[in-house]
Write a structure and sequence with these properties.
Blueprint (H helix, E strand, L loop, with lengths): L9 E6 L19 H6 L6 E6 L15 E3 L1
Length: 71
């Protein structure tokens, strides 16, 4: 079934938990603050590539809801 489906939408985000903002576009110059925001911006069934600028602390459960994440 997966092989017969359309190519998933892909997105790429840069995350800096220390200085980023979830109001930013998520690029290197203006990174996001949270993985949750990157997932919110990823289409259902889509794939998101996340680059972390520094160490990231995540202490909660995050539902992927059909999304795939590469960190």
């Amino acid at each position: 079934e997966f092989l017969n489906s359309q190519t998933p939408t892909t997105t790429q985000f840069v995350i800096d938990q220390g200085t980023g903002s979830d109001a930013n576009p998520g690029n290197l110059a203006l990174p996001l603050k949270s993985i949750q925001e990157a997932l919110r911006r990823t289409a259902a069934g889509g794939v998101t590539y996340i680059s972390l600028v520094a160490d990231y602390s995540h202490n909660q459960v995050t539902g992927l809801r059909g999304r795939r994440v590469v960190i």
